[in-house]
Amino acid sequence: MSKSQTVYRELQRHLDKLPVGFPQTESGVEIRILKLLFSSKEAIVATKLKIIPETIRTIFRRVKKEVDSKEELRVLLDNLVEKGAIFGEKKGKRIYYRNALFIIGVYEFQVTRLTSEFMELMHQYIDEALAEEFIKTGIHQLRTIPIEKSLSVESKVYKYDDIIKLIKKVKGPFGVAECVCRIGHDLLDQKCTQTELRESCLVFRQTARYYINHGYARPITKEESIEILRKAEEAGLVLQPGNSKRLGFICTCCGCCCEGLKLANKLPRPSEIYFSTYHAEVDVNECSGCNTCINRCQMKAISRMDNVTSVNLDFCIGCGLCVTTCPNKAIILKRNKKKRKLSRSRFRLVLSILRRKSGNWVMLKYILKLIFSLKLYYILKKK
Questions:
Q1: Half-sphere exposure at residue 170, Cβ-oriented, CA atoms within 13 angstroms
Q2: SS3 for 52?
Q3: This model's pTM is above 0.90
């Protein structure tokens, strides 16, 4: 293995230790992806970063053999932030740098600089290794919430499922980004069959501030956020916020482009990996057999056989898209018997994934590092 190849392999192994890792493949497609994002020197420095936010001064102690000065390190790290390869956040007069998860993170940060080459490599990597990595802990980074009109007035709606109320409680900022999955498919001449909407993924609070500051999203108002959500619902897109109570973003997803939904459709029981409160149920006596719900479902969970329409509960993720367009009101959403516990914040969600992946001791060491680096207060305050 050449020295250059060794550098990228070391970075791959380093990133693979993150809560959602970056696994090795037989084809080496992951190395080709890293070479698009990092120069060899940047790759060396990136292996010295942690998932804990750190200053130039702290990082320089570990990389002073690789760079000549703190100023050179600053330029190098800022360039990586600009390329969406790492996180870089300003707090007061200092900038804190850290590794980012590849999904959700580096992949989404490429939305303004996507190329057909990157997307082809991504699709190959997802098929070969990344999809399994994304779901192997059984803790999903996204959840599904029902679209507002799919719930009856009588339904008890959990606070974390009432999306309009959640948005109204957000003080801001608000932003909207283009859907990285649909833009990527456009580059490969695989146009979305569901919608013409591209600018439809919403970001809030700290996530919005980061996206807007780095050019991944544009600022919008609270009212514009709700209107974009309405358009997404009309287009038949599945609403997927982060899998925590604190609203940071909402992805608006179609079955033909969304990498998450495409992956789920390949699984024998996708409902098991999705955090969802509801499932659809058909009243066969009211169903006219119009097939509207079948065409609307992004999970292919609804079928009709011998003039009877039924829902496959292994595939239904409770999005409610089938309910809102049923002319006979023959479909309703019913609450699942099993209630799943929702993380309070994305920070705690990532800790849960890390614990499931690597065990209690690794998670404990991560928390101790946060404490000893005096960043725990900073992180919890923002969460």
A1: 29
A2: coil
A3: no
